[in-house]
Design goal:
The complex is a heterodimer of chains A (about 300) and B (about 575). With about 300 residues, chain A is an alpha/beta fold. Chain A contains eight helices and twelve strands. In chain A, the strands form two sheets. In chain A, strands 9-8-7-10-6-1-4-5-12-11 form a ten-stranded mixed sheet, with helices on both faces. Chain A has a two-stranded antiparallel ribbon with strand order 2-3. The chains are: A alpha/beta (about 300), B alpha+beta (about 575). Chain B: Keywords: FAD, Flavoprotein, Oxidoreductase.
């Protein structure tokens, strides 16, 4: 049996190690100060997809991401680990999207891809922490969804059903659903495999049209220069990462980007955590026991 | 996100050496694979870019997976049941990661599914893996055996075995026996040819075999009945799929505990001859050992680096008498010397790796076509240098790894004696490096020839002829004076023509040469990159005093005093 798998992935600013300059004065994220990374839980999702591909030879893994031209990096990172290809949804009309407009755009692209059994993505992105996009995509496509997945345990070909272990409060549960299906993966799932040495060498020059047009050089990162090894792109079609605009996916402009986003940000508060209280404990059993009791009592743990 | 490639600028520095241009051109045969394989480089820059990208993967796996697993692996270790070995959980995870990343068979040609990397980037990966967990380097580094299989096996064997290694199967080299350690000529494992089955059968016992339950073994065995020396030994390939070899026990070791050291029982184990009969020890194992020694050097360098980092971090964090202990001269001197020894060791490692790279690539090309007279000259030159640098490097860097590990614990004080800090594991892991693949004493035996015939001196004088920045003139003068002293003591010892006396002073002479070589290598580093200046200054101060000590000992020594040392 072979499966058609679409991985939803997002390029996000690395909010895990934020410094003072993480936010701009106007309260928006200072993207220049934070490195752009593969959203961590989307990597967990990618690993689940690649495991399915390992288990069911002939399966394909296709990445789908939305973002500016440089978000093609997400597709490359997928290719480096064993994905077969990907699409970059990129258009000014998509900019400023909230979760509703994002899931609309993704759903139109998925409809265009058309052939799929499993759509899988991370539970949430670390720049918004909403966990809404996956479920909204499922609703827009009219598909069943399994959220907080930790492990895909089995795919029954004949019955076209999938068995998934999911993370719930205080434990795990195993559920079953029909294909096609949308799955969102929790950070407690297996970490993503490393990049593969051979695939990195094969795909390191894969680029989208925007990246190719503005190819930076090492010495002048801001000045576009002639594309190195330009002749390879014709000989090796897989080096051309496909970009899709609103028109390519037949998107309704009123449902895209800022105009398709009902979310309004009222205010933004800058909260700085400060350690107010601290306790020093010894490693004596008594101290540790007291701490456990205290943490249980105030529901920090348990 | 820890990345052992990106957090250590030394890696890039050594990767981008001018000799790499020649090495890559040879290894890539003028980039002949570029249209045959989708992952082959187009040109030199492309190849270097690929090495960097792959080393970044290695660095990430080392920082994110192998290093965090090291403590658990050290604690749990492998186990044996029913003749088969089970690795520690962390070891299994490490192996899965390097397999998925396609990091087995790095140096093998692409036609056998390898990455066709030169030895420099391969050894750089070994350097990082060792910094993460020296014990795991043994399992991963045994892919070296594929190199021997490639060099001496026939086409059919290459095709059957090398792709399996590249796909992640592990290897072992089964040499040592209970009565054949340093003296491999006494190997007794018996190989009998069976005409009916047209194959060989192996019977006997091997001991201290690293990763002895590997998928593919290279085995040294006695194929010539009635012989007792090295000329009766041949090399065999044993495939675990055929069965016949069981692991009787695994050793309970002091360090590198994650790497299973096995006692193997061969009972009619089916095997095939690799290369020609009778050349097992005198040709193939010697080649295998030289490769392995370079691997142990990398292991030592990784350990030296790890020890330095542990020592440095603790010294900056630990406060006593109101300040960080690194502010005290007694401590900062230790830290500075650890840095200098680690830097010097690393420079030696890559200098040696480059020498090996050039001559091995040429040797491989010579199987495809006749070398030009210039190429033959080039191969001879680098082969000799590799032969001289491998034992000197292995001997010195493994001793430095031990010294750095010792000092790392010393900096930690009482805490370093506890199991709570990594330095105690590093200390135990380092202790084997100057023993296996030939003890330091045996490295001296291999190196002394190049002291007496002048290989080292000629190379040191070549380093001397390089143009250095004016501000490094003082250091260069010190090195010149050290070299002159080295030359004089060597003359004084060798002109006695007393072999026992030369052997007695051999280690001192090899070390004196090494201080000059290491000093000049750091001087070249500082010439290229100012950040090596400190290590160059610190090392040369140290080396100068060491050479003075050696000179003093040799000059004041009466040969008759040997009688006081002789024990029998």
């Amino acid at each position: 049996m072979s499966l058609r798998i679409i991985v939803l992935a997002k390029q996000v600013p690395d909010t895990r190690n934020v410094g003072k300059d993480a936010m701009k004065e106007d309260g928006t994220v200072n993207r220049a100060a934070l490195p752009a990374i593969f959203n961590p839980e989307d990597l967990n999702a990618l690993e689940q997809a690649l495991r399915l591909k390992d288990a069911y030879p002939g399966s394909t893994v296709t990445l789908l991401t939305m973002g500016p031209g440089r978000a093609a990096e997400i597709i490359r990172e997928g290719l480096y680990r064993g994905a077969d290809g990907g699409f970059l949804l990129t258009d000014r009309a998509f900019a400023g999207a909230d979760t509703l407009a994002t899931s609309y755009a993704l759903a139109t692209a998925i409809k265009k891809i058309n052939d799929y059994d499993i759509i899988i993505g991370g539970r949430q992105a670390i720049d918004g922490d909403t966990a809404q996009v996956g479920p909204q995509v499922a609703e827009k496509l009219g598909l069943t969804q399994i959220t907080y997945a930790e492990e895909i345990q089995n795919v029954d070909e004949a019955a076209r059903r999938i068995t998934v272990k999911r993370h719930i409060d205080g434990g795990v549960e195993t559920v079953e659903g029909p294909l096609p299906i949308v799955i969102t993966v929790n950070g407690s799932a297996a970490p993503c495999r490393p990049r593969n040495a051979r695939l990195v060498q094969k795909y390191k020059r894969a680029m989208g049209a925007q990246e190719k047009a503005a190819h930076p050089t090492a010495c002048h990162p801001d000045v576009p220069s002639e594309l190195p090894y330009a002749n390879l792109y014709e000989k090796r079609p897989y080096l051309n990462i496909q970009e899709w605009s609103v028109n390519d996916v037949n998107g309704d402009l009123t449902q895209c980007g800022l105009s398709g986003s009902p979310t309004k940000v009222k205010t933004i508060q800058n909260i700085v955590f400060q350690a107010k209280e601290s306790k020093t404990l010894t490693s004596a059993d008594k101290d540790i026991e007291e701490m456990i009791v205290e943490l249980l009592a105030n529901h920090t743990i348990g | 996100m820890a990345n052992f490639y990106l957090d250590n600028p030394s890696m890039k520095h050594h990767l981008h050496h001018p000799l790499m241009q020649r090495i890559v051109e040879l290894k890539e045969r003028g980039y002949a694979d570029k249209d045959k394989f989708d992952y082959a480089p187009q040109d030199f820059e492309d190849a270097m870019d690929s090495y960097e990208k792959v080393l970044e993967i290695v660095g990430e796996i080392c920082g994110e997976i192998i290093a965090p697993n090291a403590e658990g692996v050290d604690h749990e270790g492998p186990s044996v049941a029913n003749g088969r070995v089970t690795y520690a959980k962390g070891t299994q995870e490490n192996l899965d990661a390097v397999r998925k990343a396609g990091l087995m068979g790095i140096a093998m040609p692409r036609r056998y599914d390898g990455l066709n990397f030169p030895i420099v980037p391969y050894i750089m990966a070994a350097d990082m893996v060792s910094r993460a967990d020296a014990g795991f380097e043994n399992l991963w580094g045994l892919q070296d055996c594929a190199e021997t299989l490639y060099e001496f096996g026939n086409d059919d064997q290459r095709q059957r075995y090398i792709p399996r290694v590249c796909a992640g199967e592990t290897m072992s080299m089964d040499l040592t026996e209970p009565d054949a350690g340093s003296d491999l000529q006494s190997v007794m494992l018996k190989a009998t040819y069976c005409e009916k089955d047209d194959c060989w059968y192996l019977n006997g016992v091997k001991r201290f075999i690293t990763n002895g339950d590997a998928d593919i073994h290279l085995v040294l065995a006695r194929s010539e009945e009635g012989t007792r020396d090295g000329r009766g030994l041949s090399m065999f390939i044993y495939d675990k799929r055929n069965g016949g070899v069981n692991v009787r026990r695994i050793e309970n070791k002091m360090g590198i505990k994650g790497s299973p050291t096995c006692e193997l029982v061969f009972k009619n184990a089916k095997a095939e001859l690799c290369g020609d009969r009778k050349l097992g020890l005198i040709k193939y194992v010697m080649a295998l050992m030289n490769g392995a020694r370079l691997g142990i050097m990398a292991q030592a360098v990784g350990l030296s680096e790890a020890a330095y980092r542990e020592g440095y971090t603790y010294a900056t964090e630990r406060k006593q008498f109101g300040k960080a202990i690194i502010e005290f001269p007694a401590v900062y001197e230790m830290v500075a010397l650890m840095r200098a020894k680690a830097d010097a060791s690393r420079s030696m490692l890559y200098e040696t790796a480059r020498f090996v790279d050039v001559y091995k690539a040429l040797d491989d090309i010579s199987k495809e076509r006749k070398l030009t007279p210039e190429e033959r000259q080039e191969m001879k030159k680098y082969s000799k240098l590799a032969d001289a640098y491998t034992p000197m490097g292995k001997g010195m860097t493994t001793e430095y790894a031990n010294q750095n590990a010792y000092d790392a614990i010393q900096i930690h004080g009482g805490s370093g004696f506890m199991k709570d800090y990594a330095c105690e594991r590093i200390y135990r892991d380092a202790r084997i490096t100057n023993i296996y693949e030939g003890t330091t004493q045996l490295q001296v035996v291999a190196a002394i020839r190049h002291v007496t015939t002048g290989t080292y001196l000629a190379q040191i004088r070549e380093y001397e002829a390089i143009e250095y920045k004016p501000e490094l003139e003082g250091l260069k003068n010190k090195l010149k004076a050290m070299t002159d002293k080295y030359e004089k003591v060597v003359a004084a010892v060798t002109e006695t023509k007393d072999n026992e006396y030369i052997d007695f002073q051999a280690r001192r002479m090899v070390e004196a040469a090494a201080h000059c070589v290491f000093g000049y290598l750091l001087l070249q580093d500082a010439n290229k990159d100012d950040s090596y200046r400190r290590s160059a200054e610190v090392y040369i101060n140290y080396g100068q005093a060491e050479v003075d000590k050696i000179e003093s000992f040799i000059n004041n020594f009466n040969r008759e005093d040997l009688a006081y040392y002789r024990q029998a």
